[in-house]
Amino acid sequence: MTWLSSLWCRFEQTRVGRSIFRVGLPQSSLQRAQAMMSSFFLHLHSAKVNRRSLRPTTTLGLGLISLYLFLLLVISGVLLMFYYVPSTQHAYHDMKDLEFVVTAGQLLRNIHRWSAHLMVALVFLHLCRVFLTGAYKPPREFNWLIGVALFLITLFLSFTGYLLPWDQLAYWAVTVGTNIAAYAPLVGEYVRFVLLGGTTVGQAALTRFYALHVMVLPLAAAMLIAVHLWRVRKDGGLARPNEAAAVLTEDFAPGTLPTSKTYGLMELARGSTPAVGIRPEEEIPSWPHLLFRELVLALATVAVILVLAIFFDAPLEEPANPVRPPNPAKAPWYFLGLQELVSYSAFWGGVAAPTILVAILVLLPYCDRRPAGVGVWFGQGRRLATTTFTVCVIAIVVLTIVGSLLRGPNWALVWPWQPPAASH
Predict the structure, then answer these.
(1) Closest Cα to residue 80, out of 115, 123, 129, 54?
(2) What per-residue string of b and e applies to 59-71 under the rule 16 or more CB within 10 Å gives b?
C-alpha cells in the first residue's frame, strides 16, 4: 500500500470521512454494489453490467463522449461568462480581449467552440447508432424520444451560441438560419420574430440568444440527460440480442414464495430467480469495470479537445456589419443541408424535409415493434429500414458538403480547385 492509499484509508476512518463516504474503497461484490447505490453521481448505474455492454463495438462510446463534451461546454461556458457582455457594443471586443488580453482566453474559447461542434456531430452519430442497432424498440420507445429531443436541443444550443461572438460569420449565419425557419407556413414568421425580438438581428436577438444559450437550453439538456441515463438503467441497460426472450415464466400466489428458491441482495448472489433466461454469470460489477472504462474515455475526450484547442483557433472575422453581407451568406454547417435544399425549393428545405424527418423519428418506435435485430448492427430482418436510413444519412452528409465546400458567390456551384471569384 502506497503512502497515498494509506493516507486515504486513514481519512476514511475519521468521523469527517465517514460522514462524506458512506462506503469506503469496495473490496467485495456487496461493497461494490453499495458504493454504486450510495453515490449521488454513480447511482444512475446499475450494480452490475452485462459483459457485452462493455465491448467498444457495442456503442462506440458515442453517448458517453457526448455527455463529456456537454460537461466541458458547461465548465468552459461558465468561465467565458466572466469575460463576456451580451451587448452589440461590447461582444466583439470581448472576443478580442479573450484572444489578446485574458490569460489562456483563446484556449478557453477554442475548447468551447470545438466541443460544441463535436457534440453536434457525435449526438447525431449516437442517434444513428441507436437506430442501426434497433435500440429504439420496446421497452425503450420513450427513451428514444428523449434522445431525439436532446438532439434538437443540441442543435439549438449550438445555434444560439453561434451569434455571441458578433462577427460577420455569426451575424449572417444566424440571419440565414432564422430566414430558413421563416419558410414554415403559418408560424414561420412568428417563430422568427420571437427568436430575434424583431425583424432583424440586433440587440434584442443577441439578448434572447444569450439567455437561451446560457440558461434555458442547458437546464433543459441537463434534466433530459439525467432522465435519459436513468431510463437506460430502468429499461434493462443497453439493448442486447435475444433480450426479448428473457421473460417472466413463473407466477407466484399472493403472499407466498417457494422455499426451494434462493435470492440475493441486488442480484449479487448467483442462484434461482423468477426471471428465466437472464444469466447472472453474464454480468460483472459496474465497479470497477464500467467506471474504469468511463474514466479512460473521459480522459481521451479531454485530450482530443485540448489538442484541437491548442492547434486550431476558433474563427473570428471582422465585426458584424448589417449592410455588408458576405457572398454567399451561409447558415451554420449543421443547417447547410437545409440551406442547400432551400436553394432548390423553399417548401422542401424550410418545411417538408425537417417536418418529415422529425415526424419519422418520433413515430418510429411505435410503428416498428418487431423484436428482430435488437442490439445488433444492421440486424437481419431490418434491411429495408437500415438501407433507407443509411441513404437518408448519406443524402444529409452530401447536401452539407455541397453547401459547405462547393457553393460560391450567388450560391453558384464551384469546385475546390477553381480560383475564387469576386464575391461582390
Answers:
(1) 115
(2) bebbbbbbbbbbe
Helix axes 217-234, 62-81, angle to 10 degrees: 150
**C-alpha dihedral, 11 to 13 to 16 to 20, nearest 10°:** 90
Q: Three-class SS of residue 167?
A: strand
CB proximity list for 258: less than 8 A, separation 6 or greater: 252
CA angle 50, 304, 129 (to 5 degrees): 40
Tell the residue number behind the cell numbers 429500414, with chain if given: 385
The closest of 249, 243, 277, 278 to 372, measured between CA atoms, is: 243
Peptide bond into 218 cis (omega under 30): no
From residue 226, give the alpha-carbon distance in Å to each of 39, 45, 145, 236, 302. 15, 11, 14, 16, 21
Q: Is there a contact between 365 and 374 (Cβ–Cβ < 8 Å)?
A: no
- Report the residue count for the chain: 424
Residue with the three cell numbers 488580453: 101
Dump pLDDT digits (tens) for 341-396.
Answer: 988 888 888 888 889 999 999 998 888 877 777 778 877 778 888 899 999 999 99
Per residue, the 3-state secondary structure of 236-285, as one string, reads: CCCCCCCHHHCCCCCCCCCCCCCCCCCCCHHHCCCCCCCCCCCCHHHEEE
In angstroms, rounded to a whole number, what is the distance separating the alpha carbons of residues 273 and 252?
12
Residue 415 CB-half CA count within 13 A: 2
CA nearest to 17, candidates 9, 27, 5, 28: 9
Report the amino acid identity of residue 40.
Answer: F
- What is the full DSSP assignment across 334-375? GGHHHHHHHHH-HHIIIIIHHHHHHHHHHHHHHH----TTTT
Instruction: Please state the rounded mean pLDDT for residues 385-411.
Output: 92
Angle between helices 105-132 and 91-100 (to 10 degrees): 100
* Spatial separation of the C-alpha atoms in residues 257 and 420, rounded to whole Å: 80
| 155-180 pLDDT tens trace | 999 999 999 999 999 999 999 999 98
Angle formed by the axes of helices 168-181 and 188-196, nearest 10° = 150
Q: Are 118 and 99 in contact (CB under 8 A)?
A: no
Q: Which residue matches cell numbers 482530443?
A: 304
> By three-state DSSP, how is residue 124 classified?
helix
